[in-house]
Structure formats: structure tokens, C-alpha cells
Amino acid sequence: MQKSLLGALAVTTMLSPIAASAQTEVQFWHAFTGRLGELVAAQVEEFNASQSDYVVVQSHKGNYSETLNSGIAAFRAGEHPHILMVFEVGTATMMSAQGATRPVFEVMAQSGATFDPDAYIGSVKGYYTTTDGDMLSLPFNSSTPVLWVNRDAFEEAGVDPDTDLSTWQAVGETLTALQAGGSECPLVTAWQSWIHLENFSAYHDVPFASQDNGFAGLDTELMLNGEAQVAHLTAMGEWAQDGKFVYTGRRNEGGANFRSGECALFTESSAGYAGIKAEAEFDFDVRPLPYWEGVGNGPQNTIIGGASLWVMEGHEEEEYAGVGEFLAFLSSSDVQAQWHQDTGYLPITSEAGEATRAAGFYEENPGTDIAVIQMTANEPTANSKGLRLGSFDQIRGIIDEELEAIWAGDKSAQEAMDSAKERGDALLRRFEAANG
């Protein structure tokens, strides 16, 4: 059991006639900086102040990929945290890490902390549970992509900011109008694979990969080179060549371009809300992610991004009680409702969403409920439940390379996606062989 420095000193020096009870320390590693980092720190402070048995110590370990890699390296060295934030594409990797993790449903049962798996919204819970409904990791920051609109940029270009943007057909016409009106950045995006391939596939109810996108088995193959995906990327490639879509990077580099007022439209996570609200000096609103009319079964439902919290094995048993208490605190209705309202992340429990609506937040902040509606309007299908693919972080890197070739005009969308499939499938076979 680890003890806080203050507690240890009190015991050893007998500063008080009454023996001080040492607090049990719980290490929590995450990937948040900026406004999100501040909000996580505030949550940890609130938990620590709410009780005297445990002290959670939060540490930023880099971006999502770096945090996952840090956690893996630390586990091998026996210096790992109790709680590790892992982005959603690392789920299959964590599930295959035998002996490295302790399922959340077991942690909660053993700790006696308040835990009702049915309280979590289905489209979020399903991503992190077994086919038997056992929760493996705790949904924490779950988001889904939406379309952000810079209303001032529309006005400056002489385009009605309330114009219909529900379909990609309408967006295409609007990009032409924005450019004609002088906009030098009609459209920018964050997280290009997540939004324009992974979510695109789910939203149109077409498969991204076989075996129910990996949920049904490890013997899965990529299907991202299908007709629907290729048609969308072909249009995006043409917009890139025409200067209507400006490519800025693989992660969220485009966020700075949008928040500065440079770009008119931005496809980004609903969790862009925290930064946009804090920094944008222009009127903005949020719309549903566009879909191609007549393609697949769109609009079906989008899928989540973000991360969940995994509990690592190898610590003292009494420390897991503190882990359970902290996870129960993070899931509580008040904490979740505030997190949702501050960040734009989805409320992971139905109760938190209902509390937010009852408080009038959606009415006062139009569009902030769009992500929730988009995720929950339709019952997820095998194509829209999410993705559970091995080595997916590396596969995303391959996809990014191929998308960049489309934007640069070096490859057709079909050539690029055929190549992404071939290269990605090779990694899936390697993962299957190692974990089958």
C-alpha cells in the first residue's frame, strides 16, 4: 500500500497523539491537456476533497497513442498506474493483454462501490463490454463527430449561415458558394480516418470490416474500400484539389484553424465544444454530421471516439477499493452532467443526459444535444456498433498515409483504399496469429 508523504510523516514523527490514518494512493494516467486537462484535474480534486480514505494522483502522459504506449511499457517494468486512459481504438489491444487488466465489473463488485451497468447508454456501453454484457473498462470521455459552423465566415462570404447542411450534396454546393464569396478555407477536418471512414461507414450502415467490424472474431478483414467509402473520398479529394477542403493534419490540427476564425466548416468531435467555446471570437453553431442522400441506410447512427478507463492488475488488493470509489464518483449523475456540459462529450449515463435537459442546458445552448440524438436515434446495427480491431492504432497510421495521397492527388480513392486494405489486413493477420 502506498501512503501519502504527509500521512507517512505524521505516523513516523508522532506529530499527533492520535495516529494519523494514511490515505491510499491511486495513480491515474490520462491524455488530456489544455481545457480538458484542467477539467480532469478539477474532477480529481473534487473526489479527493470528498473523502479522506484515498487520494487520486492524476498524470498527463502525452497524446492517446503515447499514453497507451506509456502504460504498456510501465506494466512491463512493474511501474504502471492503477487506472489507464485508453482511446477507443486500443480496446482490442487491451482485451488481448492477458493478465494486464482487471475488468471494471469485477473491480466494482469487489469494492462494493455503486455500479449499475444498465445505467450507461447502450451505444457507449456496447463498445467496452463483452458479448455477455460484462463491462471491461469504464466509458469516460465518449464523443461523436458533428459539423461545426462559423456563422461569421458564412456571412462574410455572402452565404446564409442557416442554409441546409444535412447532406454532403448540400455541403458540396455550399463549399462552392463559400469559395466564390472569398473563403480561403471552406472546410477543414480533424481525425480524418475516424470521421470520414470509420464514422462514415457506420452512419451509412455499410461495413468497415468483416466479422461485424471485429466484434464477432479476430479473423476480420478491412472493407473500407467499398463503393460508398470510395465515392465519399473521391468527392473529398476533388474538394481538396479545388481548395474547398484544406487538409491540415492527421489529428486535431484543424481545430486551431477553425477556432481562429479562418475556416467556415469543421468536421470534428462533439468534444470540440470546450475549446471552441473558450477560444472562438465568432458566432458558431453545431449541426449533425452530413450524410450522402441515397447511400446505404444513412443516416443510421455515428459511433464513439474518445477513451475509456482500464484498471491495471498488479497492485495491492486494498487499493482497488479506492479505484472502485473513484470510478463510481466519475459515473455519478452530477459529475457526468457537468462533464457533458463543460466538454461536449456525451453523458455516459441516461440519468446525466436527462439531468442536463431538465436543467435547461440544451435550451440555452442550442445544438449541444445533437451528438446525443445522433448516437441514440436508431438502434445500432452490426455495421454501426463500433470497431474492435487489433493493431488499429497502426492501421489508422496506414489509412492516414493513403488519405494524404488522395488529398495530394497522387492516388485515386480506389487505389488508396485498396492499398489501405492490403496493408491493414496484413497487420490484422499478425494480430490474429499472436492472439488467436
List keywords for this structure.
single chain; 436 residues; 20 helices; four-stranded mixed beta sheet; 47% helix; six-stranded mixed beta sheet; 10 strands; alpha/beta; globular
Model description:
By secondary structure, the chain is α/β, with parallel strands linked by helices. The chain has 20 helices and 10 strands. The protein has helices at residues 5-13, 34-50, 64-77, 91-95, 104-111, 122-125, 151-156, 168-180, 192-203, 210-213, 227-242, 254-259, 273-279, 317-331, 333-343, 350-358, 361-364, 370-376, 392-407, 413-435; strands spanning 24-30, 54-60, 83-87, 101-102, 138-143, 145-150, 187-189, 265-269, 284-287, 305-312. The strands form 2 sheets. Strands 1, 2, 3, 4, 5 and 10 form a 6-stranded mixed beta sheet that branches. Helix 2 (34-50) links the parallel strand 1 (24-30) and strand 2 (54-60). The radius of gyration is 23 Å and the shape is globular. Residues 1-20 have low confidence and may be disordered.
What layout of secondary structure does this protein have?
Layout: H1 5-13, E1 24-30, H2 34-50, E2 54-60, H3 64-77, E3 83-87, H4 91-95, E4 101-102, H5 104-111, H6 122-125, E5 138-143, E6 145-150, H7 151-156, H8 168-180, E7 187-189, H9 192-203, H10 210-213, H11 227-242, H12 254-259, E8 265-269, H13 273-279, E9 284-287, E10 305-312, H14 317-331, H15 333-343, H16 350-358, H17 361-364, H18 370-376, H19 392-407, H20 413-435
Helix pairs in contact: 5-14, 9-11, 15-16, 19-20
